[in-house]
């Protein structure tokens, strides 16, 4: 019976090509607009590392003096000082952790065929690879001995390895970062994330770094941060050592806490650490304060999806509602014009339910066609966003969920618009129209 209704619906659409085309276009434009905004919102708000997002925690410490305030909503600095990062790293605890910062270097080889180029780098502890599920193609992470001795080693990403070594196993080879020669110990697959959740300071939608260096290289090589550096007190940083000893916030710190009990234990450790630091003149506050936020909590806290994105989604639904109103008017005109035909069918034995279902199948078919066309319109819209703003390069895309959602939304909207016209026409009195024939 369903196939019979589909056949009738297709014939009906062909009998009124102009009206059918107008309805399909209205549906397609509405779906195209809403799927463009909804796809971006979906990619922005999706969990970037679902297998571990509840285990990875970002550490924030309120080191400001009592009378000082910060520009965040809770006065908590986003980052920690270098000395706090080193103290937390050296603590005798069984948890994976990493201090990290953004840097950059001129990458070059002893090869005239490859010109030097600037590449961003992530200076981090060796646990970063296991914590964030980074997969190695060749080699592995640097060893704890390399970390402790500040060995000149590096891990590079697949894209950079392709560029420098044509994708070959480059473990053991050397590259130059500015005037520093480093040995490659591993090659990872490109970091599969579209949201830079591990460092939101310079924008959430940036390409992940291609170069990874041990955090122990920061001090001996005086590595400059390419990220944010913020200070809250007047200090004379005349040299690099002064910066390391200062109260400047310029390091991110993450710790992996697999269970709730681990999080409580680490929270107790942070309170004890701050109390110890208070004894030597730091953390001069009546109430010690810290924050341990997991990945999704951090994304909400940093407003990765801001109010503008939410408003855009609401406006796109309002636009779809306008399209719905236009479709409703066209369906009313089309179905009521068909009332004599429906009267004859009713007289021949068709029930109200059968007539109602047939018309809903017809509007459902409109929805399927409009939804598929809407996907194409949405792809054009997403392409325009990618080309106009590089920050949307990774997130202006439709994943499988959104591709499946488009026709579902289109069919649902069309059925919603067709309920009243279908109900109205199925109530047609056969005798009225039989007398007029």
UniProtKB/TrEMBL annotation:
Domain of life of the source: Bacteria
Keywords: ATP-binding, Cell membrane, Membrane, Nucleotide-binding, Transmembrane, Transmembrane helix
Location in or out of the cell: Cell membrane
Pfam families: FtsX, MacB_PCD
Protein name: ABC transporter ATP-binding protein
Cross-referenced PANTHER family: ABC-TYPE MACROLIDE FAMILY EXPORT SYSTEM PERMEASE COMPONENT 2, MEMBRANE COMPONENT OF TRANSPORTER-RELATED
Transmembrane segments: 21-44, 311-336, 356-382, 402-426
Organism classification: Bacteria, Pseudomonadati, Pseudomonadota, Gammaproteobacteria, Alteromonadales
Species per Swiss-Prot/TrEMBL record: Pseudoalteromonas aurantia
Domain MacB-like periplasmic core: 20-222
